[in-house]
Amino acid sequence: MDISIDFMRRIAHAAAAETLPRFRSQGAVANKEQGSFDPVTEADREAERVIRALISAEYPDHGILGEEHGSENISSRHVWVIDPIDGTRAFISGLPVWGTLVGLTVDGDAVAGMMSQPFTGELFYANASGAHYEGPGGPRRLTTRKTTSLAEATLFTTTPALFKGDARLRYDLFEQQVQLARYGTDCYAFAMVAAGSVDIVADPGLKPYDIVALIPIIEKAGGVVTTFEGGPAERGGDILAAATPELHAAAMAALRG
């Protein structure tokens, strides 16, 4: 099935109506994880609520998996996966690198998705027509860079601290092989792979709602997204995205050590 861009725009606009008024507003922040810090805000909860309402009205037989409000009807062939604010830490810090992620899986495969960054006025999306961008500079088709060598690549990860034990040692050696390494930006870094500005993102410990929406955007732009071991990324885990198959293979080998 195909998902119209009009529907994705409706989702983006509805979510933005909940997130933007609360961005940089110094609102209350709750912690979802005892012994650590996993923040959630009213913007997260309300944005997911309106997204779920739109999906349920348009596709009542489809399932939904959301970070804040759980799952419903996920035995359906069609399941929408929602992260209302991917990058809540950036959101509460006033940094405009968070985004609203909404993706659709059919029989477990990610087939359509969108990442909306309403503060910058950007929408990255993929459907049957390919991967596209709308925002400053005008609409365009998304295409990854043709980088094949680690020595010429730009790498992003949320933070090397997420790599534990031997994995951290392998990551440090991997980072030494690339041209430029930067940290943070959550879903925005993955979107930049599709946009041709970043070559690799390596992020361990992602949940399905962190990555499902981004898979078709990157893949339809020419990139590759898998786990570090080369498996499907739809269920989350340690996720590697790269601009080309050749670069993905080189990065996967480096991360394996």
Describe the protein in words.
- By secondary structure, the chain is α+β, with helices and mostly antiparallel strands.
- Helices cover 31% and strands 30% of the residues.
- It contains eight helices and 15 strands.
- The protein has an eight-stranded mixed β-sheet with strand order 4-3-5-6-7-8-9-10, sandwiched between helices. It has a five-stranded mixed β-sheet with strand order 12-11-13-15-14, sandwiched between helices.
- Helix 1 runs antiparallel to helix 2 and helix 5 packs parallel to helix 7.
- The model has no long low-confidence stretch (mean pLDDT 96).
- GO terms for molecular function: histidinol-phosphatase activity; inositol monophosphate 1-phosphatase activity; metal ion binding.
- One of its GO terms (biological process) is signal transduction.
- Pfam families: Inositol_P.
- Keywords: Amino-acid biosynthesis, Histidine biosynthesis, Hydrolase, Magnesium, Metal-binding.
Question: What is the structure about, briefly put?
Answer:
InterPro entries: His_9_proposed, Inositol_monoP_metal-BS, Inositol_monophosphatase-like. The chain is an alpha+beta fold and 257 residues long.
How does the SSE layout of this entry go?
Layout: H1 5-19, E1 29-31, E2 39-41, H2 42-58, E3 63-66, E4 70-72, E5 78-86, H3 88-92, E6 99-106, E7 109-117, E8 122-127, E9 130-134, E10 140-141, E11 154-157, H4 166-175, E12 180-183, H5 187-195, E13 200-206, H6 208-211, H7 214-220, E14 224-227, E15 237-242, H8 245-256
Parallel strand pairs: 3-5, 11-12, 11-13
Antiparallel strand pairs: 1-2, 3-4, 5-6, 6-7, 7-8, 8-9, 9-10, 13-15, 14-15
Helix pairs in contact: 1-2, 4-8, 5-7
GO molecular function, one term: metal ion binding
Enzyme class: hydrolase
Binding site for Mg(2+): 67, 83, 85-86, 210
